[in-house]
Design goal:
six-stranded antiparallel β-sheet, three-stranded mixed β-sheet, alpha+beta, 291 residues, Pop1_N, 10 helices
């Protein structure tokens, strides 16, 4: 009857008000939804914060904050000059080189020149105390065929002849520089392509997103046996690499290994006179136990 219908509608309204608006609007699985939305452009870890305050742009396989939605330019300038301003540079790509120090320096000398500034062999940088910056060129082609600017950090010496070097490159330059590094060190493709975890999680996410209908009606996600599906893990990926491509290469003659560590090592830039104070207050030295 009409009375019963009105009663049912009234009860439905009462039930909907039992949860707060935030809880009612929450996606059935936020991580699955976020993974689905990152299929084309990877998010940085600070994405949610930036997305609420910035106009976002899609560049180089990432979703990046471009300009603030509010007039906060004066606040940013004030932070840079008097306080501390933090930028998320995690979209910069990290290429890791491992091998004997002499083998690394011998080949790296071919793609840079002392005439253009620092080289990988600079004493203060080679010790691991300071970060260096230089321009890279195609092997034995200086001053022609410049690849682009990079920054680099050597891992401090541990008494072994084996060293570790991180080269940070802009995502637009990554493929060219990676190709040149593989060529000078004669690194071959691995026999079996290593599939990283993000591929597995994206397949799980595909299955789970399917059960959420486009109309917004949600039902409990279940697998074939009727049990609750395993929660989807967060994507740890790279916007500049196809997930089915390999991410590590090795030279059979020298044993030098090149690894693509993009988005595995986060990077932040602190600007301003209080940057050092912020770091000292935030970071605490770990207690090293000697056996």
């Amino acid at each position: 009857s009409k009375k019963q219908a009105e009663k049912a509608v009234h009860q439905k309204k009462e039930q909907s008000k039992t949860k707060c608006r935030k809880a009612r609007r929450r996606h059935i699985n936020l991580v699955a939804e976020f993974n689905h939305r990152q299929r084309k452009n990877i998010w940085l870890e600070t994405h949610i914060w930036h997305a609420k305050r910035f106009h976002m742009v899609k560049k180089w396989g990432y979703c990046l904050g471009n300009s603030p939605t509010e007039k906060s330019y004066r606040a940013c300038y004030r932070a840079m000059t008097k306080h501390c301003l933090l930028q998320d540079l995690s979209y910069y790509c990290c290429l890791e080189l491992k091998g004997k120090e002499n083998d690394l320096l011998k080949q790296l000398a071919r793609i840079c020149s002392i005439d253009s500034g620092l080289t990988f062999q600079e004493a203060c940088c080679l010790s691991g105390r300071f970060e260096g910056s230089l321009n890279l060129y195609r092997a034995d082609r200086y001053p022609e065929d410049m690849l682009g600017p990079v920054t680099f950090i050597w891992k401090p010496r541990d008494g072994s002849e084996n060293r570790q070097l991180w080269i940070w490159v802009h995502p637009a330059l990554k493929q060219d520089i990676l190709r040149e590094l593989k060529a000078i060190f004669q690194c071959s493709e691995p026999e079996e392509i290593c599939i990283t975890e993000p591929v597995i999680t994206s397949i799980q996410e595909e299955k789970q997103v399917e059960v959420v209908t486009s109309l917004g009606h949600k039902r409990k996600k279940e697998d074939k046996e009727g049990e609750k599906a395993v929660p989807v893990k967060k994507i740890i990926g790279d916007g500049t690499r196809d997930p089915f491509q390999s991410y590590s290469w090795i030279a059979r003659t020298t044993g030098v290994a090149i690894s693509d560590r993009s988005m595995e090592i986060l990077r932040y830039r602190l600007i301003g006179p209080l940057s050092h104070s912020v770091l000292t207050e935030t970071l605490k030295a770990a207690s090293v136990q000697t056996v």
